[in-house]
Structures are given as structure tokens and as C-alpha cells.
Design brief:
single chain; alpha/beta; 8-stranded parallel barrel; 46% helix
């Protein structure tokens, strides 16, 4: 795999012009971009056509979460687009996820379907407040990853801190897509569970989702090169 394919740049914008400026600046350095709900809605979906025209891979991060039939219909839409990865909430349950897998793989076997376990903005305290569960955050994530694997999904979105344990339970072919990646000394903002790019690679992460460190930087190319160097260093250390 091209080292660049392990880095997914989150397009934290609300307008297409800002996206175009960044994509043009990072043209030769970035092959993979994440499109979230804000950008997708504010561009009326045009962002997908633009990135496809530039030959870029897309992680469509809309986190589908509904009853099995509704989620499956939304997922079929994603499968018919030129999307490399899209996600659904694992909390929708095994029946929902299995329905999505069967429908999507029948249309486009290459599309990677990922389950969202626990959002990286959640802490132990917020988990208890919401679920009143005696299980730790880590135990909940691992259980959801196991169910996601059993439903036939390709992997999960998770914190980089959880990647190694998830692979121990679900196998090395089960993919981990990890947001909450920050360069050392960067502001963590609303992320609670974070790692550096090098640490994340060493902990078994397949894809690193990186947004603000790049999109809010005064020199996006310099930061992107620094991140790619860290990924390469991490890969060398685990070889």
C-alpha cells in the first residue's frame, strides 16, 4: 500500500471553494479524503463529484443510523457512488449491519463498510451519563467491534488507543480507521482519546484520519509531509 493511502484528510469545511484550495495545494501528497455531514450537506453532495474528478479516494463519513431497511437504502446510495469507504453506527445492531453488508457487497464488493463504535469525543464520564453502564468505555468498544465483525462488516472507526485490542479480538484483516490523530503538542480540541501518527501506526491502525492539524495549518504541505514521515517511521518500526 502507498503510504499516502494510510492517511485520510478530513475536509473540515462547509464550502467547496475551501476544499478546492486545499486539494490543489496538497495534490501530490494526499490521495484519500474524508467527507463529513457538514461538507456533504453544504455542497449538496457536489463534493463527491469534485473529488472523483480529481482521482481521489473518499471516506463518506455520514454515520448512517436507523432501522435496518432505512439504513440499507441509504447504504445502497453510497455503494452506487465511487466511494472507497462509508460508515454506519454499530449501535444500530447486528441485523441492521448484516442487511447493509448483503445489499452493498452485491452492488460493489470493493466498497469498505465500517462501523462506528464509540465516538472519540466521548469520555468514561459521558459514557456512564448516557448509558448508565457499569462497563468501561474500552469494554463497550470491544464488544461493539466484535458484533460489527460478526455482522460481516470490514472494520470499525475507533480511537487509535483501541486498535490493537480490537485486532486481537477480530483478527488482523479487520480494519481500524482512527480519528483523534494529533501531532505532538497539537490542540486536541473536542477529541478525548488521541495519539500521534507514529504511535497510531505502531498500535495497529490501518487508516489515520487527520483534520485540523492540516486544514487549520498556515502551512498544510509542511504538516502533511511531517505526518507522512511519522507514518513511514511507524511502519518501519513494526516491520
Amino acid at each position: 500500500m502507498d503510504i499516502r493511502d494510510k492517511m485520510i484528510v478530513a475536509l473540515d469545511f462547509s464550502d467547496l471553494e475551501s476544499v478546492k484550495n486545499l486539494v490543489e495545494e496538497l495534490e501530490d501528497l494526499v490521495t484519500f479524503y474524508k467527507v463529513g455531514l457538514e461538507l456533504y450537506l453544504n455542497t449538496n453532495g457536489e463534493i463527491l463529484e469534485y473529488l472523483d474528478s480529481k482521482g481521489k479516494k473518499v471516506f463518506l463519513d455520514l454515520k448512517f443510523h436507523d432501522i435496518p431497511n432505512t439504513t440499507t437504502m441509504a447504504s445502497i446510495f453510497a455503494a452506487k457512488k465511487n466511494i472507497a469507504i462509508f460508515d454506519v453506527h454499530s449501535g444500530g445492531g447486528k441485523e441492521m449491519m448484516n442487511s447493509v453488508v448483503k445489499a452493498v457487497k452485491n452492488i460493489n464488493p470493493e466498497t469498505m463498510i465500517i462501523g462506528v463504535t464509540i465516538l472519540t469525543s466521548f469520555s468514561e464520564e459521558s459514557i456512564y451519563e448516557i448509558y448508565k453502564s457499569k462497563l468501561s468505555l474500552n469494554e463497550l468498544v470491544l464488544n461493539m467491534a466484535k458484533i460489527t465483525k460478526e455482522a460481516g462488516m470490514d472494520g470499525v472507526v475507533c480511537s487509535a488507543l483501541e486498535s490493537k485490542e480490537i485486532k486481537n479480538i477480530c483478527g488482523t484483516s479487520f480494519k481500524t480507521i482512527c480519528p483523534g490523530i494529533r501531532l505532538k503538542d497539537s490542540n486536541t480540541n473536542d477529541q478525548k482519546r488521541v495519539m500521534t501518527p507514529k504511535e497510531a501506526i505502531k498500535n495497529g491502525c490501518n487508516y489515520l484520519v487527520i483534520g485540523r492539524d492540516i486544514t487549520k495549518s498556515e502551512n498544510p504541505r509542511l504538516i502533511t509531509k511531517q505526518i507522512l514521515n511519522e507514518i513511514e517511521e511507524g511502519l518501519k518500526e513494526i516491520c
